[in-house]
Amino acid sequence: MTDQPERDCAAATPRIEVLLVGMNGDLRGKMIPLKAEDKVWKNAVRLPSSTQSLDIWGDDNDDITGISLTLGDPDGICVADPRSLTALPWGPSGSKQVLATMHRLDGQPHFICPRAILARVLERYTALGLTPVVATELEFYLIEADFRETGRSMPPKSLVMNGEVEGFQLYDMRATAALSEYLDTVRAYCDAMELPADATTAEFGPGQFEVNLLHRPDAMAAADDCIYLKRVIDFAARRHGLKATCMAKPYSDHAGSGLHVHASIIDHNGSNVLDSHGGDPARLKSVTAGMLQTMQDAQLVFAPFANSYRRFQPGSFAPDKIDWGFGHRGTAVRIPDSEGLASRIEHRVAGADANPYLLLAAILGGMLLGLEQDLDPGPVTAPGSAPDNPAMLTHDFLTAVDRFRASAFVRDIFGADYQRIYGDTKRKEAITHLRTVSSFDYQTYLPRV
Known about the structure:
Blueprint: H1 4-11, E1 15-21, E2 27-33, H2 38-41, E3 46-48, H3 62-65, E4 75-80, E5 86-87, E6 96-103, H4 114-127, E7 130-144, H5 147-150, E8 160-161, E9 164-165, H6 173-178, H7 180-193, E10 197-202, E11 208-213, H8 219-239, E12 242-245, E13 259-267, H9 282-293, H10 295-302, E14 324-326, E15 333-337, E16 344-347, H11 356-372, H12 397-406, H13 408-414, H14 416-435, H15 439-444
Parallel strand pairs: 1-6, 14-15
Antiparallel strand pairs: 1-2, 3-4, 4-6, 5-6, 7-11, 7-12, 7-13, 8-9, 10-11, 13-16, 15-16
């Protein structure tokens, strides 16, 4: 690595990047010279509202959404959230970045904006006098940056000996040492942005790592932290000639990447309402039941792409059953602690490819059901003991799409318009995937059938 990029940045014009989060967790926006920053805070930055409805290929799908050319592709207002203002450590000195919520021209938050969807869910907690406390754990892979030319993903060369990845595995400190320069850059970027990044560990797969973010008594800030962390791992990889990917399953024969969410709830006195106080954790179990009962309907949010469903495999740490357990890492919902301020749930279903804002809206929406009703999560899964015939998550993208599109829960949490647009856009993606004849078909069926 050379210091030429840093010298070039130092001589460049500082800027502020105004960022919008699309339905696929993609960041789009505008780059504005820092000397014109005032326009950001005067709500003078605009982009078409359809920016946040683009599918995975960047198509606005006006025939599905009806919010692009049908309406003349109208502008929305990018209302920057000052709490998310932070440094842009890979940009010219003094540069900044900020996350924005799309508003309509009448000043109201736009239904198409994932940040606005999460904000509406959080308003319901505020009305109850409650505050979710949230943290995320993000897994990702580092691969060689020539994947477009080679047509396959390969671990970083520093992990490879004689053509094989040798001696590196789960929690292996030699893996973190081999990628120490990259991980040091990730840490430096997080520090510059004041991201609450905590532990970093090597995970199961070659070149796979996890970064934990600390708990926040502000779920919007927790989602912001996660989307910024995804940006950090991407730009740090570019600096080192690598590619970072949050694709759920980049290798057939190695572990997928998850995005686990830890959540608790505090009241206006700062007390954890999920604390069992040494007795039966009835509230904690009811909240767990709310998440379990809505899990099939919301799976499209937890697994938003065709590749996402390759991660749900029996015998893996990616759950395929709708179950729960105390301290059990094989369950969909794990309860790490049921007493004291640390009483919380861990939602283990989502892949690293999930949109953090939609993900938290779905999880917190399910938890709301358990707060408002007395629900039973059913038999607990324990070592050597599991319920008979549990409900299952689907392994099929199109099935998840159909469940999402038909769900009353989804309509309540995400709104009918977003349910229609997100569901129909994903249905197009699922059908395109079904119609695509893959290399597996050619290698397996063509010579034998």
